[in-house]
Amino acid sequence: MKIYTGCIPCFARQAVEAAEMSTDDPALRQTIIRKALHSMAELPYDRTPPHAGMIIHRIVKNLLGDIDPYRDLKYTYNLKALNLYPEMKDIIARSRNRLETAVRLAIAGNNIDFGVRMGCDHVDLHGVIEEALQKPLVIDHTERFAESLEQNQNILYVADNAGEVVFDRVLVEEIPDFEERVVFVVKGEPVLNDATMQDAEEAGLTGIVRVIDNGSDAPGTIIETCSESFVRELNRADLIISKGQGNYETLSEEPRNVFFLLKAKCPVIARDLGVQVGDLVLESLALKQESL
Amino acid sequence: MKIYTGCIPCFARQAVEAAEMSTDDPALRQTIIRKALHSMAELPYDRTPPHAGMIIHRIVKNLLGDIDPYRDLKYTYNLKALNLYPEMKDIIARSRNRLETAVRLAIAGNNIDFGVRMGCDHVDLHGVIEEALQKPLVIDHTERFAESLEQNQNILYVADNAGEVVFDRVLVEEIPDFEERVVFVVKGEPVLNDATMQDAEEAGLTGIVRVIDNGSDAPGTIIETCSESFVRELNRADLIISKGQGNYETLSEEPRNVFFLLKAKCPVIARDLGVQVGDLVLESLALKQESL
Fold first, then answer.
1. Smallest Cα distance from A71 to chain B, Å
2. Would you give the distance in Å from CA B217 to the centre of its chain?
3. What pTM does this model have?
4. Chain-chain contact of A9 with B6 (C-beta, under 8 angstroms)
5. How much is the ipTM here?
6. Whole-angstrom Cα distance, residue B84 to residue B130?
7. Is residue B240 within 8 Å of residue B285, measured between CB atoms?
8. Domains of chain B
9. pLDDT by residue (tens digit) across A167-188?
10. B161 near B110, Cβ under 8 Å?
11. How far is A23 from chain B (nearest CA, A)?
């Protein structure tokens, strides 16, 4: 998905939030914001939106060194989600369709996204679980997803955010032989509240599946910024589970067997998907392309 | 009120909306947005927020010539508000406190503001009248306002938006001897949906009071951009009625007898006023300064 003009105010907000998260020094904050605005003015509009997030966080890194301003917030949400892990396992145990319930929980976890919401640093995790269990999936390719899990062997699970990865773990654990079949992918470097290897460890994923990082510092999967080893894994996979908006924005035109699990949180993505803001989605890219 | 970092995403949104309102040509839109972002990056942060709006609309003007992209929308809201004028006069006739009711109606009109709301081009005028008649004024200096109207002779009514000026007319007409005492001020050039002389004419104000323009193209009252003749009127006035956020942002540190009538529509201004977003305000600057 290419950048829409409607994305620009959101980039400006991300720059302001990154500046405010990264330093208390008003002069440095101004420098970050000014540099980011100049970069946004020069942005090639044929790129995807995560390109902008990547540039903003590179500006922060260049000015402040290797810092991870979202570290505390990520740790907090990993812990919060881990506290709910037993409850989620229980919900699945009591459910009629374990896979569908696990899909819904994984989508619920996609609410933990500090790249999207203006000024929002609190997510009511009980509330979002409740919502995801009750609301319809407005695009619902669960059946195709279940078939694809049966038919394919090598599954790449492309994660999105910290905290959310605990919800992802619940879904991973519902995939038969997940220990052998699933490779779980996190970001190569910190950007926004996207999950890195540390988050995968904190969420207990490294103990159950092979976790790799994609070598990139983009809040999405911009393939040309990823490591060769990640690209090999991507090419080897015959089923890709893609979590969240950033991965949708960067993988939605890839000719691969991708399933997008996300909550549409901004009007631009909602329009691109043909849904409303707030809608829950499990979309098979293959099925979508077949129907075009 | 100086620019806060929280204003930056709103400036970016204004740039995008100005580009989309002004031209259908994608290349021109991009040029407007890119130039605006560069300008926002260079913005002196010791200015007030309307400075940014002024710069954005000057970029549009430089690229596209003297156009007024909001003209149709302004005309539509002048007409819509005029349709409600008899009803508003009736509400006042039936009210226990005519001045207070007229103040509330003038504040209701401040909802017609296309500089503030993301993607909003529809305002339910009946709804906002209802709201303004029922909700408390969270800052309520109506008593001081009534006293000040009795004690002072020369009243400058600094208007905000098209459509809203019909609501202003209702308040103006409740001021004793308004024909002699009130000078009504509109913008010197089109910017956003701010009222110009044409709107004052369409709203019927030019027939009842002296209307002047401030000579400026800023969406507020940046005094150094105003004409000498406006500044003379400002200095002659002993009571200033200031409508809306843009005028608050630019007049809130002036050592003058100003009354601000507005609805707080953004978190930055709400914080500056010490109220919540959505709150209705009639604030006497003098009374505020006395209490500090």
1. 23
2. 13
3. 0.89
4. no
5. 0.87
6. 12
7. no
8. 5-64 (no CATH), 71-291 (3.40.50.10880)
9. 999 999 999 999 999 999 999 9
10. yes
11. 13
